[in-house]
Every structure is written in C-alpha cells, then in structure tokens.
Design brief:
- The structure holds two protein chains of two kinds.
- Chain A is mostly helical.
- Helix content of chain A is 68%, strand content 2%.
- Chain A has a two-stranded antiparallel sheet.
- The longest helix of chain A is centred in the middle third of the chain and has 29 residues, at 144-172.
- The N and C termini of chain A lie far apart (50 Å).
- Chain B is of the alpha+beta class.
- In chain B, strand 1 and strand 2 form a beta hairpin.
- The chains are: A mainly alpha, B alpha+beta.
- Chains A and B meet through helix 4, helix 7 and helix 10 of A and loops of B.
- Bound molecules: fe (ii) ion (2 copies).
- Residues 74, 128, 157, 160 of chain A line the site of one fe (ii) ion.
Amino acid sequence: MALDQEQNFQAKIDAEDKIEPKDWMPEAYRKNLIRQISQHAHSEVIGMQPEGNWITRAPSLRRKAVLLAKVQDEGGHGLYLYSTAETLGITREEMINALQDGSAKYASIFNYPAQTWADVGAIGWLVDGAAIVNQVSLQRTSYGPYSRSMVRICKEESFHQRQGYELMLTLCRGSEAQKAMAQDALNRFYWPSLMMFGPHDSESAHSASSMKWKIKRETNDYLRQKFIDQTAPQIEFLGLEHPDKNLIWNEERGHFEGSELDWDEFKRVIHGDGHCNRQRVQHHIKAHEEGAWVREALVRYKQKKKLKAA
Amino acid sequence: MSAENLQLFEIFLRSKRGLDHKHVGSLHAEDHEQALEYARDVYTRRSEGVSIWVVRSDDICASQEDDSESFYDPSNDKPYRLATYYQLPDEVNNM
Ligand SMILES: [Fe+2]
Ligand SMILES: [Fe+2]
C-alpha cells in the first residue's frame, strides 16, 4: 500500500504536478519541507535586524522610507512562509521555539553585522540579489503552497535589490570617502553572499532527496555560479574593485571562475560562532517576550466580546 | 425545506494543481457536503477544476469598498515599493 502511494507520489512529481496539503506524501518529504520552509521563514524575520538597525540613522527621509518599506516586506515574507509551513502540520509556536532554542537554523549571512550605511546598500544588492536567484528557482518547487508564496515574494523582492544597487551607485558617484565605504561593504558582503547558496553539491546533506522530490530545482553550485556571473559586471559598472582577485572569465565555459570559499568560516558561523549569532537570537527572544502583553490583550478582548454577545 | 431557507455558499475552484483556488460563484445548499456536490454539478461540468472549496457566505468577512479610500490610503503614497521607481542605467537595468 505504502509502496503504491509512494510510486503514485513520485509519478506526480515526475509529471511536474504540484503536491497540495491534503495529498499523501512521504514523511521524509514533509519533514524536509518543514525544515527548509521554516528555515526560510526564520531568515526573513532575523534578516530584519541588521537593516532595521539603520532605520533611525538613514541619511535622508527618502532613504528612511525606502528602508522601512523593505524591512516591512521582509516581515511579511516571514508571515507567508510560516503560514506555508503550517499547512504541513507544524505550529507557529513549535517553529518559534526551535528558532529560539537554536535547533532551527536561519541564513548565516544575517550573523554578520551591518557596520556602515554602505552595508545597507550591499545587503540589498548582494544579499537580496542572492536570495532572489534562489527564490526564482524555488517558484518551481513541487509543493504548491511553497511555490505560490515564492511567486508572491519574488514580485515583492524586485525593489529590494534595485534600491540597494541604487544606494551603492550614489555612494560610488560621491566623495572619495563614500566610494571607499562602498568598497569596504562590498569586500565584506561578497563572500558571505556566495555562501548563502550553501555547501558544494558534493557536501550538501539534503541535496539528493531534495532534487529527486523537486523541492529544490537547481543545485547550490549552479545557482551560485549564476550569481557570480550576474554580479561581476555590476561591480565593474560601479567602478569598484572585485573582491576576488583570482576571478577570471572562462571563455570556453562561458562563466566566471574565482577563488574557493572559506568553508571553515562558513561552518563556524553556521554552528553559532559568527559575529552576531547570540545577539540575533537574544533580540528575537526579547522582542517576543516584550510582545507577550499584546497577545494576551487580544485573547482577553476576544473573551470579553464573547461574554458580551452571550 | 424551501429554497429560501437553504444557506448560501461561496464556491472556489482550483483549475489546475499548483494554482490558487479562485472564486467562481455561489449557490444554495443544505450543508457543506451538499454544497460540494452541487458545486461539482454546477461549476465543473467541463472539468474546470481539480479541487473545490465551499465556504458559507456568512463566514466571509469582507472589506467595504466604500471605505476603500481610508482603508488603502496608507499604501497609496509609497511608490518606492515598486521596482520601477528606481532608475538604473541601461547597463545594469536587468536586475
Ligand atoms: Fe524577503
Ligand atoms: Fe528582500
């Protein structure tokens, strides 16, 4: 019986059919999706912190309004994704607990601090840029609700990268000091952005089943290459130096090739030893606890209304 | 039971796996099960759908279009939420 179900399930996937919440699915598929989608949701929410830190210090009202709108979008993306994960039978509370006790991960890029105003530009351009490459590919994921939230999110993301690049362009056309600040932000954010695509395919623990089930549609290395290729001319246009001194154009392959990434750093940050790991989770816990009275007030208000109606 | 006493249900159809359910119309029925069967007969005679949702109309809480000005006003003056707001030179405009 289970075998038939599993064959039937894989046949749907192979035929590019979407899996919907009430369909039968293998337990491992459900688990794999919950892990990936909740991790994605946590990343959206934790990702509000480094940029949120600059809202009050934005250099103009225009920049402040833009940054506020972007950070607000990321909160909304977190909501879409938590709701998507909930269709698989996990509760919001379980997911938040897993984030706060460290058993669930989020994109390690957000454990790097946003030290200067130029970092806000670099984050929009590179971090959102890398996220978009990944999310565009996930629009074709096999789980219907995840696919639909990716379509919605990609539509909203489109301004995030452009505002970041525009900010960088403004700095690069400004004073020497402003251009130096842009270069410094690029130097620090380039490498961790490449790491956002995850380990090499040969090292990736979840890749094989994710590909078979079409949860992921393209491999980590393929997507990373795509991002390297699209970013190189954008760096050149800014008039900045490429952070990878070994970058060369491989005519035959039609791709850029560069240095190997510092995978020790990648592991260190993932396992909790980045600049801001503790701070990010602590801040989340603090905000969550400080919001407890709002949640409580909502429950009380509902009870009161019920009493009145009765 | 006369038709007037039947409840009103709103019908949503998913035309193809992977797509959102879309509102297609409403009908009267005794209960959810009957609404599902009626919806099948009325709205999917030409295989228009692979999945039907029926929702009691009473259970739908809708925003009022008359209030739309004040309801949506906070978003209307924020064109910077759109990608087209950011003018980039042609060389890098494809992001
Ligand atoms: Fe986002
Ligand atoms: Fe974003």
